[in-house]
């Protein structure tokens, strides 16, 4: 008889036994994120058959065309956390303002920021997609949270992670005690531990960047990418280019095998494209917890003092050694 599956719920219970100080609330939140993942995966697996591909015709606060699946994923997160008592406020890429869940205040002590569907350009061509989440604690429990309560540095996250809708559905998260990956077993409808205590290699052999933007990059960034492509077998170069259009999928590959993902600042758009609160911060926490590094090219992502909920930042993330080399080029020190 095979080993009994170590499901997400059992793993969380085991983790709590090892760390009595941990409260159960965050674990209930993680289980709810898992349920969201199952529902979104169920939609995605048959998206071409139930008229949920394509766009809604709307434009979101980012100035992006909203895909039907963006909206469906966002609604799934909203409905999962309304009334549950756990989360008192939500911030989403797809919603201009923070959403207060008054029925959950003040007992709800968590605030959830999320990118409901990451990699939206991939929806109609069956390429990988993800969801990203960041969990903050609402410390002023004598009053409902305001938007400024969401503007916490990444180092203040109590949990972070992502769902990856790839060849299998995975949930990868950290609560500050290592990074653990679970694979959804559709046969039993449970997430089963498949990658315990993920450690990212010190250096990798892969880089992920949209080189179609090369002409917009500052020279240091251009030089770094050329450096990665210059053969030097002793240094393991050239690196292979792997770019899927889904940040979660590209970072997941790098988390497991090493390397570097870049969505850098551009000459005319130094803040870059990716959003701090629900993309860079949560992935930054995951990658740092696995022994990697997440930087704007000049400073640590998790140290940034947020000013706005949809604030953008340049993101260089991955293996410690690779990100440090990228920083040296970007800062003109290479
Ligand atoms: P989202 O779909 O949540 O808006 O995020 C898209 C992000 C990220 O997932 C991806 O790596 C990057 O944008 C792709 O941008 P380009 O199409 O400009 O390369
Ligand atoms: Mn995204
Ligand atoms: Mn998105
Ligand atoms: Mn988007």
TrEMBL record:
It is an enzyme of class 3 (hydrolase). HAMAP family: FBPase_class1 (MF_01855). GO terms for biological process: fructose 1,6-bisphosphate metabolic process; fructose 6-phosphate metabolic process; fructose metabolic process; gluconeogenesis; sucrose biosynthetic process. It is found in: Cytoplasm. Binds 2 magnesium ions per subunit. Pfam families: FBPase, FBPase_C. Its main location: cytoplasm. Mg(2+) 2 binds at residues 115, 118, 279. This is Fructose-1,6-bisphosphatase class 1. The keyword DNA repair does not apply. Its EC number is 3.1.3.11. Its cofactor is Mg(2+). Mg(2+) 1 binds at residues 93, 115, 117. Pathway: Carbohydrate biosynthesis; Calvin cycle. PROSITE patterns: FBPASE. It comes from Nitrospira lenta. Belongs to the FBPase class 1 family. GO terms for cellular component: cytosol. Keywords: Carbohydrate metabolism, Cytoplasm, Hydrolase, Magnesium, Metal-binding. PANTHER family: FRUCTOSE-1,6-BISPHOSPHATASE-RELATED, SEDOHEPTULOSE-1,7-BISPHOSPHATASE, CHLOROPLASTIC. It catalyses: beta-D-fructose 1,6-bisphosphate + H2O = beta-D-fructose 6-phosphate + phosphate. Homotetramer.
